Amino acid sequence: MKDPLTPWLFPAASQTEETAENAPLAERLRPRRLSEIVGQDQLLGEGCFLREAIRQDQIPSMIFWGPPGVGKTTLARVIARQTRAHFVALSAVLAGIKEVREIVGMARKELQRQGRRTILFVDEIHRFNKAQQDAFLPHVESGTIILIGATTENPSFEVIAPLLSRCRVLVLEPLEETHLLAILKRALEDAEQGYGDLRIEAEPDALRQIALFSGGDARRALNALEAAVQLGSAEQSDGPLSLTTALVREALQKRTLLYDKAGEEHFNLISALHKSLRNSDVDASLYWLARMLESGEDPLYIARRLVRFASEDVGLADPGALGKALDAMRAVDFIGLPEGKLALAQATVYLAQAPKSNAVYRAYGAVAEAVAECPHEPVPLQLRNAPTALMKGLGYGRGYLYAHDQELGTADLDCLPDSLVGRRFYHPSEEGFEGRVARRLEEWRRRRTRAATESNEDES
Question: Has this prediction a pTM greater than 0.85?
Answer without folding.
Answer: no
